[in-house]
Amino acid sequence: MRILVVDDEPDLCEILCFNLESEGFETERAYSAEAALSLIGQGQRFDLILLDIMMERLSGYDMARQLRSDGDSTPIIFLTAMGTEDNQLQGFAVGADDYITKPFSFPTVLARIRAVLKRASNEPAQSTTDLVRQGAVEIDLLHKAVTISGQPVALTRKEYHILALLAQHPGEHFSREQIIDKVWDDDTYVSDRSVDVHIARLRKKLGCYSDSIVNHSGFGYTFVPSN
Q1: The model's pTM
Q2: C-alpha atoms less than 13 angstroms from C-alpha of 217 in its C-beta half-sphere
Q3: What whole-number distance in Å separates Cα of residue 52 and Cα of residue 100?
Q4: Topology classification of domain 131-223
Q5: What is the pLDDT of residues 2-13, one digit of tens each?
Q6: How far is CA 216 from CA 10, 32, 161, 174, 220, in A?
């Protein structure tokens, strides 16, 4: 397993890489988001990215947003001193798989890395069929890809799984708690508001089909196919 550590503090990068290598991981380090994107652009592939947020010029948020818009689904864990709930919600909104605040202990980081890697490698297809079609929205469960009227839609992992969950059960109400239970790991704290943020961003990406995801007050979210 290869992990890319992105942080503008060289000493922190060295400590993290040393400890990760002691646990059997291969590591690469980058001291800026630009350097990290360059490595990825050169064809280097990673199983997970540990990413700081506050860096000069391009922030960790910007890097994550760019990767997701490019269709890169490499798991991302933000590792940052920015610890407010709004910071965390923004992190998840741009595509993070987990969010750890500084200061941290390495055993905690290691446990969260393993949980994210396990989740990424064992994501089951949610249906025995490979394709789910709801109007112009088509979900390829085998390749975890979404198209609208034949045009690809770039979704984060969480956005994809929320859409797949709802679209496979049209007309069925899913509460925020049910969505959290089915999309997030048990060991990850997720607030109801985070679900709303993910769905708001998903709706935006669905464009003129955003109304397919309906919020029924007191019941939760429902997928209603558009003709």
Answers
A1: 0.59
A2: 0
A3: 10
A4: Arc Repressor Mutant, subunit A (1.10.10)
A5: 999 999 999 999
A6: 49, 43, 20, 10, 5
